[in-house]
Amino acid sequence: MGAHMTRRVGLVLASIHTGASNGLWSQIANYSQRSDYSLFVFPGGRLEYQENQEYLRNAIYSLVNTDNLDGVITWASALGGAVSVSEVQVFLQNLEDLDCVCIGMKKEGCPGISFDAYSGVQSVMLHCIKEHHARKLAFLRGPENHYSAEDRYRAYCDTLDQTSLLFDSRLVSDPFSWSEGRMAIVQLLEERNLVPGRDFDTLVCASDLMMFDAGKYLEALGYSIPEDLRIVGYNDSRESHLLKVPCTTARMPVGELARMSWNLLNGMLGEEDFSCFDLLLPSQMIVRQSCGCTYSLGSEQQARRAVGSLELFQAWLIQVFDANEEEQGWIKRLLKEASLQDEKEVLSLIGYLSYWFLDRGGDPSLLSEALHWYCTFFASPSFKMLCAGPIRDLFLRQRDLVAHEHAYQHSLQASILNMLKYDLLGVRALSSIPSLLAKHLGLLGIDAGYLVLYGDETKNTFIGGYADSLVMERKQQFPKHLLLPQGLLDHLGQGVHVVEPLFMDNQPIGYLILRTTLFSGSVMEELRTALSSAIKGALLLDAANRAREDAERAQRSRSEFFANVGEGLKTPFETILSIAKQVEGDMGKQIEGQIRTATHLLELSLSYSGNLELEHKVCNPMTLITPLLGSFPLVYEGPDEMPALCVDTKRLIQSFTIICEYILREGGSIRLQTTLSKEGLQFCFTSSLSTWKASMGSQDPSLSLAQRIILMSHGSFSLQDNAVVVLLPLPSLMGESNPPSFDTLFFIATDGNDPVPELLRTSFASCEVIPVGSLQRQELSRIAGGIIGWDADNQGREFRLLRTSLAGHNTLSLSPMVCFHAPEGQQNLSSSLMATHHHHSDGVLVMVKGIPEAFCKLLALDEEFIVHSEREDVLDVVANQPVHLILGSLFDPVLYRTIRKTCDAPIVVIRERWEKEEAEQLSLIPRLLIAHQCVLESSEFGERLLALLETNELLPPLTGALVKRAVVYLGSHATEQISRWQLAESVNVSEDYLTRIFRKELGISPWDYLNRHRVFLATQLLRESSLSINEVASQSGFQDQAYFCRVFKKIKGCAPGKIRSQR
């Protein structure tokens, strides 16, 4: 490894949050903190272990190399379980260039430290056999390929042999994972039908974790420990305290393992001629109550031999409490004060010592036992009478205090982690994770974090991180074998760093390096899980976005040819067509016909690629027929007054023209008949020649275009004998309608005496006249499923109320409608009828300076309804006549607040640009809406204003403020790439909620609004600059030219080039 100021050492082990490993790594971390080394902990899982995808953790082991570390301690025996001992040895050999200390397994050429698990298991078995007369001992085996687990099984077999007890294979479980004690005991009880207490009197477990899992199962079945059977384990981990009685076990010398392995590695790094030697540390038997004992020292006679003098008792206390030099002084002082019977001083010392002992995880039963033996062998009668009771109470209080303090600390940690998890749920981009980690983890004592994701075979990617108050968000690639980019790695400094593996869905994705002073493996594991989930979500979202972008790119690529060719050929075709019309005779007609066919074929192609869009508007059917009467030998047989349709007038006229040209080519003159039915309005184009067959031209590209336009208008197209039949559906109030359930027309009239139009009486089998005043909101269901008849000339308050009720009804808003005299040009019948319902007597729309005249035409309102006003005259207008709506372009909060004092009419302010501060000021004024000038060409926005004239309904001020912020954000970032989540995040609401309130306020979705604003910006560039079309598209926020041209034509009705040619 390259030179660096602080030496780096590693700790390799399977886990830091289960069993004895939690204690080992935290103690080694404490030694590291007191040194000038930096420790890197690699909890990389057992090698190739499949359960819970543990093998995915193994990926971080490749980082244990000489470029990252100077030396390493590895708990080698813990890495087995799924692989053989020889395979673990191969793994250790890959660390050959690092100074290495191995725990639990020998690596050639390196010092090794082992713990004598064999003698530990043997000692607890001998205790049960000799002291409690155990004769039938069952055994729960640990993992098969685990070096120490095999040692413990050998101890079981050898101890039975040494004590002349028979080995019964039925009493030995198959090898199980350390966490599968329940499965092991289930195998004995259910598969082998063994009964505890009858078939075995003692259950020996290969680890405390297995003992806890099996013991909980036995307790749930009703077995009492140790009355029905004894249970013992190995490790002396925290699990040995979690059954109903504290459990007898043998203590793995975790503290000594940590101290000795650290000292050995320290010696190897500090001395060139360090001698290599191995250590074997003994395992101490810990007697508790699950074997049948009451006290760890056994009977009174046994205890007297062990602690019968004050010197022996003091030595025992120092040993079992693992007291350091200072703490030994406190114990000596306590025994001295106790002999003097100074009750106050004794209680004070015991309070301190018991708190210290319990706080670091000491066994509470030892406190009671120490008091018991002191009272038995040394205490005076007065001490027993005056002090023993208060001391026992003090033990309980201290135990309660420590438990509550630990619970409080854990709750604080859980609260911080929960807040982090909550924030991580909203992660949409990996770049936002470092700032979230910095925000929360510092509160846990984790003062630095670095996030790395795996890349290709040679590179990883540093996503970002934080150190103290500095947040790093710049991505950086670096060689895969390094922990971090070299510059960052060289300046990490001293500290304890945990390298947590991140993985998801059978795939390692990276790792998180945490510099911490909190040595809690469970917190680290919980953090790893939460972060893996957040990264998974962000990666899935990124993959979905990439897939969507790829699909959109493919779609654009597929249609780009048609889009560009369509725009590029349109002008040449028109030019050639105009020239062909000047050529006389058949030649000119042939050229004209071929050019027209080519144009139709091109438009047909555009329709299939999604580049031919129809703009449906309310239309009088005679508007479609009148142009045909002057251009073709056509006889029209039908009524002059027909109900309105909702179609693209220009495209329908083109379709009808193609049909007429097709018939005229060989079929003689044309007769056009119209018929009204519940299915819609039918147009039948019939040839005067009965022998002519319409189906002969079914492959004609022009006729195919006509058919395509009809189908895109939700109609039907058929060739019947010598006729071409087109059926266009009846519209609903909101546009496209649902089919009626029955053939009854309900004609809404002023009263029951109003005449029903002749066309309706002859077209529908059943026609019922309903006075408008008889239909209340609760009675609307009676006309659901039928066809609604309406005459737009019928006006008045009752018709306005009924129209509003119908528009808000889930079913009737989509019911087919036969509507006469509806104004043309609106997006749907609801808007069209709205435009007919406004009268000067009801109130006016006040246009304040700055709104174009063209917008008044878009609203289709009578001129008498609109009052044009200068700024200084607005207050007079508001004071002297009823006002429905105020529309202007002035940013004048003072004026609007003054208006609001006397008038509650909605105020709509439309400007070219909005600043955040301006929008915030106007957010304080109720019933005020803001927008950019791009909406002045939007029919949807026009309909929203008509709805305001009708209902006066706007969002509440606080909700409206969210929409105003979104409007400002869209305007400020229109030239950038904006994602949905970014927009929603800018106003702190969800994407769906923002879309709903935005559309409700402005009548248009945020994304349509954004496209319109971008087209507005593009139009300015086209008129004011000499930039190319591609440059204009890029500078106005569009990703590519083809998509820009498509959106531009949809909104402006022409190609971008046409705007430029009109400069």
TrEMBL record:
The keyword DNA-binding applies. GO terms for molecular function: DNA-binding transcription factor activity; transcription cis-regulatory region binding. Residues 964-1062 form the HTH araC/xylS-type domain. The keyword Transcription regulation applies. SMART domains: HTH_ARAC. It comes from Sphaerochaeta halotolerans. Keywords: DNA-binding, Transcription, Transcription regulation. Gene3D superfamilies: 1.10.287.130, 3.40.50.2300, Homeodomain-like. Pfam families: HTH_18, Peripla_BP_3. InterPro entries: Homeodomain-like_sf (IPR009057), HTH_AraC (IPR018060), HTH_AraC-typ_CS (IPR018062), LacI/GalR-like_sensor (IPR046335), Peripla_BP_I (IPR028082). This is Helix-turn-helix domain-containing protein. PANTHER family: LACI-RELATED TRANSCRIPTIONAL REPRESSOR, XYLOSE OPERON REGULATORY PROTEIN.
